[in-house]
Input
Amino acid sequence: MFSGFSHSVRGASHEKTGLVCQDSSAFKLGEQYAVVVVADGHGSKKHFRSHLGSRFAVEAAIEAIDRFYERSEELEANLPENHARIIRNIEKQIISNWNRRIDEHLAECPVTEEEKSKFKPEDFAAIPPESYYGSTLVAAVAGADYTFGLQIGDGSLVAVLEDGSAVMPMAYNESAPANVTASICNSNAAKMFSSFYLPNSRLIALFGSTDGLYTSFGSEYDFLDYHSIITSRLNDSGTFGNVILQNLKKRTHYGTEDDISLACVFHTKLLEEKLGLLQEKVSENKARSAQRKAEQLSKKAPK
Output
């Protein structure tokens, strides 16, 4: 029923400074559901293991969602009435899974003297160990006729619906400095998640991305149009997959020049049925984009 892909690419600014890619991404295909997950490690001084923290966040999210789907019929029967409680429980399980991975990694790989050397002893002692691994997280599930998702920190989710429209189920969260942004490493992380649930909705495609993608566009219109274009070409995902990867590498030179992750799952049969509609939407979006640019130029023109 579902297929998918995920890519994480190193940002242009990180290439210049020698910082490793802080992003991680993945997708998971079940029999009746599919998952997209992306995470963005903070990368600042006190989050010196955040490239690992983002990977652990992705793994923790997939593990938690899979656990809830072990009883998929019961889960899906309860979602309409109890989706808020179910999603909160998934969020709590993700945090627990993530912290377990942090504890295991610290036990196997204690902080080195080199890592400590960047801090004054008293400053290092004040950093909670989980902060070494600080990361954002965006995760969403596409079912047969519903979708739900959760998010802590910045990043985006885009759903391409059965009618061909591309929407953001949750508003984009603006970036904040790494020491104050919502993060899975925060002691009150369980209260910092945002979530959504869309019942009675068949999705053609579901995308999750870190904030480096959103900030590489001039407007939300352009950001959504980009996802429509990708969706219209997913029928050739084998060949098109490399095109997407190369485009993401190119896009890291725009906006904040940050790392970019993009994960996608799509309904293969519905995509085939709606391909003509999607192509029409792309043409309509191009026309509207040209009109918006013309209007902007008109406003800037001297009178």
